[in-house]
Amino acid sequence: MSTTLPAIRIASAVDAATLSVFARRVFHDTFAADNDPADMALYLDYAFSESKQRGELADPARVCLLVEHEGVLVAYASVFRGSGNEQVTAGHPVELERFYVDGAWHGRGVAAPLMAAVREVALEWGGDALWLGVWERNPKAIRFYEKQGFERVGAQTFTLGADVQRDAVMRAPLGAA
Known about the structure:
The protein is of the alpha+beta class. The chain is built from 5 helices and 7 strands. The chain has one domain (7-173): Gcn5-related N-acetyltransferase (GNAT) (Aminopeptidase), CATH 3.40.630.30. α1 (16-31) runs antiparallel to α2 (37-47) and α1 crosses α3. It is globular. The N and C termini lie far apart (36 Å). 31% of the residues are buried.
């Protein structure tokens, strides 16, 4: 296996099909064991269709970062400006909508550089805080975000199919450390 670090780039509309397949698979792999299959299927069809990905990639208020290794997608993050949350104290909050690393790449040095790229995008937009919602039953992700400087500031609901779940809302400051 190559020791070259994966490359990070901004996705474009031509990536919609690949992103749709990858996002569906990684979300399913991450959450299917803990959720009803019918709810999972509904959510996957809603959130990760190729047409929805194409629309999000064309949205000037969003940036999707792809991490590729030898031409294969191994992780991605989606960042959204103009999205606030009443629990997030910030003048110019930027939402980290999605942050997923293929399970085979966990622990291989992909997540931290991707988070650094997310922060760079948010700073370029003039953001002063980065925020996200993470399922409260995903302790591994919560620990990662805490290591990245995020703190819990509240909770919100997240609907997976017909199942209303609870996400922790987390916030990290941007700018000078």
